[in-house]
Amino acid sequence: MASQINLMWIIIAAMLVMGSGCARTRSATRSMTSLLPTRNDVRTQHLREWNDWADANLQNGDIVFMRGDCLMLLGTVNFSTLSTDLTASRFSHIGIVAIEEGQTYVYDIRTKGCIRTRFGELLADRDLHQVAIKRHRGVTPEALSEVAAFGQGVYRRREKYDDQLKLDNDRLYCSELVENSYQQIGVKLTDPIAIQDLPNYDRHLQAIKFVRAITRIEPDQKVLVPGNEQIGIWANPALYLVLDCPDTKALPPR
Prior knowledge:
Elements lengths: L1 H34 L3 H19 L5 E6 L2 E2 L4 E2 H8 L6 E8 L2 E8 L2 E6 H6 L3 E9 L4 H16 L17 H10 L9 E2 L10 H10 L7 E2 L15 E7 L9
Antiparallel strand pairs: 1-4, 1-7, 2-3, 4-5, 5-6, 7-10, 8-9
Helix pairs in contact: 5-6
């Protein structure tokens, strides 16, 4: 009987030791977990490093090409995917850089109007996936300041988005904002192209038909596009690549 009692106490003691060991392990795990960076820590680092990179490397008038997600029709249509495929382009959106008191901002126009965003915050947008930046090699710094000022003026005046993609009205869409910012200093970036002449127009006849039904946009209407190596703003031979970032969740180049 005594031997059974002793065995029982040995087992209890062993369980207590094991239990206390597990408690220490859990405590250590919690301590280690608390040392790991949180999602907010990672985002803050991402913002800071991209802002620092932009402030050191970008200048007025730099053109920001973007690709993200823009969902329409209750999330059933990704407009960015449609527009990039239609134009055979990596990018669906475009904006202009302005340096303000040593800090880098991007001006772009969306459905809610002209937006002013710190560069790091732009890249931290969860809906943005790719970014590239091009710079015009033939424009003076003074003229580039005027280019940036054009975007600032559009933002300040709260000009409205042009959902009809017209070139002859008082509203703007993204590529038109960039084109007009350069044309007002006498520099043309690209020529408009008819929608029906876009590279993959024939692949999207049903989508074009739907667009015609709900808007006044017609296939022979000419538009400005971010473009690719052959068409649009991207194709301008006076522009050279400053940054190509296929993954906006990555940190900037060293």
